[in-house]
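Researcher: Structure for this, please.
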Amino acid sequence: FFSSRRRHTRYPLVTGVQTCALPIYKMYDGTTTATFTGTLSGVYSTDNVTLNATGTFASASIGNSKAITSTATLSGTQSGYYTLTQPTGLTANITAKALTISGISVSNKSYDGTTTASLIGTATLNGVLAADAASVTLLTGSATANFNNATPGTNKPVTVSGYSITGSAVSNYSLTQPTGLTATITKAAQTINFPEIGRAHV
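Model: Predicted structure, token format:
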């Protein structure tokens, strides 16, 4: 005969919203999936009960303090003996997904007194989610490049700017301009012209 109350009663289990549940920020991934960390209170120390802390955002787009609806569940050997009170008031940020550009380099040039540099290659946008591929386009028409100064030198740093993105999903992304590019400015060739010297007549 076993008369433990645990066989007949489910004990309430509450995750503390203010001190026991901590939402986790995430980068935009096209889904509404949310996660948080939490500590269960009310579980007997000898029982095996685990919190599976999951939830959903109202939308997949980026934003600050976006509301999360908890869909947390319990697991473990004794989880069936408890009921879970879902935490409320959870919010977290979805931050923009960073995009990068590859496929370009910088031409070497002869000294011309300017910092202007020429980009070569085909710029490729990296990091767009497959579902957004048709909704994010790289614009290259305003891209410019400049050496750090106009003096001759090898492996001189080049700063690139002017690339941008367009499309209906661009608000969920941030674009990083290409970095780490270098090129060489060689010394300008000089030509010396000698005046014609007339031949003396005898």
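Researcher: Any notable elements?
Model: The chain has no helices and 21 strands. The two ends are 143 Å apart (CA to CA).
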